[in-house]
Amino acid sequence: MTEEFAEKNLEARAEAYLRDTVLPNISSTVYVLHCCEALRPISEEINLVNKLINAIANNACKEQLTTGLLKLDHTFPSKTTPTMEPETSSDWWGKSFNVLSLEFFQRVVSVVKSKGLKQDMISKILINYAHGSLQGIRVRDPQVVKGSLHDLELQKKQRVVVETIVSLLPTHSRKSPVPMGFLSSLLKAAIAASASTPCKSDLERRISLQLDQAILEDILIPTNSPQNSHNTMYDTDLILRIFSIYLNTDEEDGEDSDNYIDESQMAYDFDSPGSPKQSSIIKVSKLLDSYLAEVALDSNLLPSKFTALAELLPDHARIVSDGLYRAVDIFLKFVSL
To answer: Boundaries of each NPH3 domain copy (predicted)?
Structure first.
């Protein structure tokens, strides 16, 4: 099959086909990489897997650069060139990753990240893969799972997928491109699958950094613990941790911790209602008041749990306390004293 026996033999023709037809196209390369999963360990030994992964990463970054130039040209068009909307083909090649096994997917994303693909694109790829991989693997009540081998296997599969995706998320940041709804879904899946404590803690911190972007549904985390003797509907301890992290986190996230001050904030005092920081905590206070009103309907919620949440925020967090008073009124009607 080599050139030792005849020119243009199988090896040379295969390499030419890969070079000219497969490697220039991301989706084609992903498909061949998927086929390599059934050809291991040979595909690894001949270094085909690494060659394909590097080609995917290089092409993704090239396409990112091309898309950026098209957007720049669209923003500042020349007088002689008609303007055209830049194509965003990243969606379709990102979705092609869904056919890969979790191991190969992790290897591809790790290399793509190392070569500088933008975080928002990494996020889209992870979201697409998570939706395909986690669909239909919802673990039921913990007591039921204990007695079902099928559910245990599903739980194990979900746990591995969630922990892998969380490990590939972009760096922690208040301006993270990862949508809050996706982080919330990951946390709910991580809890249901009994993911590791570091995995769940990582998600809690990410959510806390973007808490001012959350809606009520994002923080309604069902209780999923067999040790929950009071049978409460929602995990208020978890939410208490998330809000506490939000309050205790430094004003700059990990990427901007070098005393950098955003120019948009320089014209405001912190206590000014219009300042970005004060605006953020006001949003968070409204979110907490909505959460309190929701959990107050649970007659099994202990007064100490409700009080801990109600007293959590500093005085300047609320311009008015109507939402808090409403939550307290609801709680007093439903609580079992």
So the answer is: 91-337
257, part of any domain: no
Read off the amino acid at residue 202.
D
Q: Which residues pair with 234 in a beta bridge?
A: 222
Tell whether 99 and 181 lie within a shared domain: no
For residue 40, the tally of other CB atoms under 10 A from its CB is: 11
The range of the structural domain enclosing residue 319 comes to 221-251+267-337
Domain assignment present for residue 321? The answer is: yes
Task: Give, to the nearest 10 degrees, the angle between helix 197-209 and helix 180-192.
Answer: 160
Q: How many residues does the chain have?
A: 337
Q: 332 and 233 share a domain? A: yes
- Per-residue pLDDT at 229: 53
- Among left, alpha and beta (phi > 0; psi -120 to 50; other), residue 77 is beta
Q: Which two tokens stand for residue 53?
A: 């992964």
Same domain, 18 and 125: no
Q: Distance between terminal CA atoms of the chain? A: 83
Burial class (CB in 10 A: 0-12, 13-18, 19+), 21: exposed
DSSP alpha helices (H): ranges in 80-175?
A: 90-95, 102-114, 119-134, 142-146, 149-168
Residue 336 lies in a domain: yes
Same domain, 181 and 282: no
Provide the pLDDT for residue 63: 82
User: What CA–CA distance (Å, rounded) separates 289 from 310?
Assistant: 8
Q: Render pLDDT for 245-258 as a digit per residue (tens, 0 to 9).
A: 999 984 444 445 44
Low-confidence ranges of the chain (pLDDT < 50): 69-76, 78-90, 137, 139, 250-255, 257-258, 260-261, 264-270
Structural domains in the chain (count): 3
| In a domain? residue 322 | yes
Q: Are residues 90 and 40 in the same domain?
A: yes
Query: What share of the chain in percent tops pLDDT 70?
Result: 74
